[in-house]
Amino acid sequence: MSTDNPVVPSGGTADAWRASPWLAWGVELRQLRYVVAVAEHRHFRRAAQALGMTQPSLSRQVGAVERELGTALFDRTARGVVPTAAGAVYVEHARRVLEQVEAGAAEARRAARGQTGALRLGFVGEALVELLPSLLARFRSAHPAVALECRELSTAQCGAALLTGEIDLAISRGAPAGEGAERLTAVPVAGDHLVAVCHRGHPFAGQSAISPEQLCGQPLIASSAADEPAAARVLAPVLSGAGGVTSARDVHTVIGLAACGIGVGLVPSSVRGLARPETVMIEVDPPLRLPDLTMAFRAADVSPPLGAFLDVTRAHCPGTGRRLSRVMPRRHQAAG
């Protein structure tokens, strides 16, 4: 008898399989289906019709299983067949195996579609203001079985974590740079420019816009993200002329300190929604463009969960979607 594609129970071993009195090593998956069909229809002809095969062929296949086992699985009568005691036990085990195989196939298909697995996301805090809430909600709704791990990191940490494989996707202020960055694909997801935030009692509060020169001599408040190279190139000229700089952990702290009258805060325009009743957001004119919020991932990573997240991004972020569409064919080619 052919030993191609032997069926081994999930979690079992070949030795355990051979030791089973009813599930013999060498029985093929299709033969288990034949035996179960005969048991369900209680008739070889009706079972053969349901399987789309001839009755003699089905009889030969079931007979081969019986010879492999060394016992009859069915009592043949003029009116049909009835499982023997051994046959009833064998059919029960066969059904379990077939169910496991079907479940495994379904899980494999779900994994291939990115519906299971895990996705590790690193992000700068500013991405939580506008971009990530709706995007993550849509992804979780479409792929609830994907384990999503989110970590707040600096832009530099995002790039390093991507390259070492600690995360799968990063949203940072500007594209990751430095050694190994050529192995990453980076796509801008949101543009930003600098705005000032101050207490309502500050002289700037009544103005619709201020110039960068007006910030000279002012006590300024900036988040630690201002120290990162891409942002520092934009902010350095402003900060160098300040009448003192207070460093804050994040934009929430910048706005909170501005609300206390500590100084004039410098924040991205995307955080306007975080303004407090005690504060006023003021445009800086001419605008000082900040590095874009950028989505980055390893160019060689073709994991289905990452692909699923990029698909959701393409569908719900039109501008970003067009940029992603230009790099997605390369991912699909690599996956194939």
From TrEMBL:
Transmembrane segments: none
A GO term from the CC aspect: protein-DNA complex
Matches recorded under InterPro entries: LysR_HTH_N, LysR_subst-bd, WH-like_DNA-bd_sf, WH_DNA-bd_sf
Domain HTH lysR-type: start-end pairs: 27-84
CDD domains linked to this entry: PBP2_LTTR_aromatics_like (cd08414)
Protein family (similarity comment): Belongs to the LysR transcriptional regulatory family.
Protein name per the record: DNA-binding transcriptional regulator, LysR family
Organism the protein comes from: Lentzea jiangxiensis
Taxonomic classification: Bacteria, Bacillati, Actinomycetota, Actinomycetes, Pseudonocardiales
